[in-house]
Amino acid sequence: MEPFSYTNKHGATYYLHSVRGTDGRTYHVMRTSDNGAVSRLPQGFEVRETVHGHVAVRRVRPKQITPLEERLLHTSMENLRPFAYLLDVDGKSATVYASAKDRKCFQESLDAEFADGFADALDKALAKRYSPELVDMFRARRKEKNAKRPQYYPLLRFVLTDKRERRFAVERVCFSGESSWIRLEILPLSAAVMKYLPHLGRDSFFDLI
Length: 209
What we know:
Structural class: alpha+beta
Strand order of the largest sheet: 6-7-8-9-10
Number of helices: 4
């Protein structure tokens, strides 16, 4: 039988492998080699692709955002600036990403601040787990990849908090402090979109608290 494969947004093909961990359990991973790949994705699992094209196998997470709500977000984002933003819907969250290389989306100073903030946070996280030599290697690889592919940064997300009333918590990204997201308020999605999406790409975004 043909091995199970998945091709991401960049055209890279990955194959499904079953590996046994040190704890004796079987894990499912995606690799670029088809040597030893298996033919079927286990029931209850799915392949998840991030906005950057990274793929992984995980348990199925039912989407709680309705098609109508997702369409509202897409339409509102396109009205701001077509193709400048990406929407990632996962479970009960809808996250808005923006391209750091789009100068009409970010001012040059904001672009640098976002890039420096994410790079600094990532380096700190790596330093807690790996040696300085490995951190330098990861940093060099990241720099090489960033030069080849556009990077997208999460800015806003809408998290469903009340399924019955369809109310969403609006959160904006934060680069300092204990939490990576700042919760602003809880609103119906239409009101949240009208109030907060226009701040994207503007200095007023940083005043949202």
